[in-house]
Give the backbone structure.
Amino acid sequence: MNLEEKDKAYIWHPFTQMKGAATPIHIERGEGSYLYSADGKKYIDAVSSWWVNIHGHANPYIAESIYKQSKQLEHVIFAGFTHTPAILLAEKLLQILPAHFSKVFYSDNGSTSVEVAIKMALQYWYNKGVKHKTKIIALENAYHGDTFGAMSVGERNTFNAPFDLLLFEVYHIPIPTENNIDICIQKLHKLASQNNIAAFIVEPLVQGAAGMQMYHPDELDLLIHIAQKHDILCIVDEVMTGFGRTGKNFAIEHIAAQPDIICLSKGITGGFMPLAVTICTEEIYQAFYDDEQSKAFFHGHSYTANPLSCAAALASIELLLSEICQQQISFIYNSHLAFSNRIRRNKSVKDVRVTGTIIAVELNTTDDSSYFNSIRTSIYDFCLSKGVLLRPLGNIIYIMPPYCITHKELEIIYNTIEEVIVHHQSQLINVTQQTQLATN
Ligand SMILES: *Cc1c(COP(=O)(O)O)cnc(C)c1O
């Protein structure tokens, strides 16, 4: 068997209906914004490989940091033991996060950082003897990961339907866009007055998997203030938005409110190693800090605080904070804004949204906006044929580039999106056509 045949014989790929699936592209190496395949093609990674590679591929500085650490200590049990990279990383994270955060709890992926946050919030009330606070509020269309707790707080949809009966009950309120904010506040007040709410969890400013749905920091500020006034712990899931994605290091730097727990993963190691953290306030920590053993937080994973991951994160954060990288982040934002003004005029475009380094272009399709929208696969294949990796969420094409991307590379991506629209005209509705139809 060749490698392609072995892949087919041995591997079950994520988020993929394996029957009829296209043969996966075999990537041999990456450099900067580019991925290079075994058959000699190259692709611009316009989605930072599922939103993790913030500094592009094979960054030599991060690679070197991991190599150095691996010769020193590759791993050690993290209960009863500690190590330098974990200590320095916790210190660094607390330095760059808002000052009210106090303790760093390590795990190894985004879903798990959310599980930890949920368990922390629930046990906080349990430890304090407040036994009736057991419910959670989340936003409609939320995505917080694929484990059971994370699925429970996420939107109920086709992806988690087989498990629906086993997911715990969660109240969902609408995403607080300008149009929805009044209903959203009303619902939050009503739920909060039940007095049984332990926590409120949100993806701040941008709901990623829902199709890069964006809302204003002021609305988020308002919701967190209301929730906290009702003694509800606020969890911000910054697994996607963290580490520069929204133009600031963290999305919560755009707001005044002080959430109680923050979840970070994805960009944390620049895409080199799996790692996640759940960071909480001193007040939460104090509810576990007790003479009673049973009040401890009994949670942990084999790879918790892996030293190689921590070393990668330290290097990645150092790069992120550099002036060059910060300039790149604002350059990407300004490029996106310029492109959004250009593409907005296109009649097949329903909406264009920009937050920091993220831009989403929503197309006017004959189909409904959903992940399984038929145009999705066609756009994906078209972009790949043009050497650009874009993974549309239904009829929503988004760009979430690595920060090292150049002006020229961004232009290639923008032009590809414009070509997508021309190429798919027959499946797109022209806005003027629509109005004509309505008036006829
Ligand atoms: C990707 C994502 C997760 C899940 O992270 P994994 O590492 O894929 O488990 C959770 N929350 C948000 C907002 C995400 O974008």
In short: The first strand starts at residue 27 and ends at 31. The first helix runs from residue 3 to 10. Residues 63-321 form a domain with the Aspartate Aminotransferase; domain 2 fold (CATH 3.40.640.10).
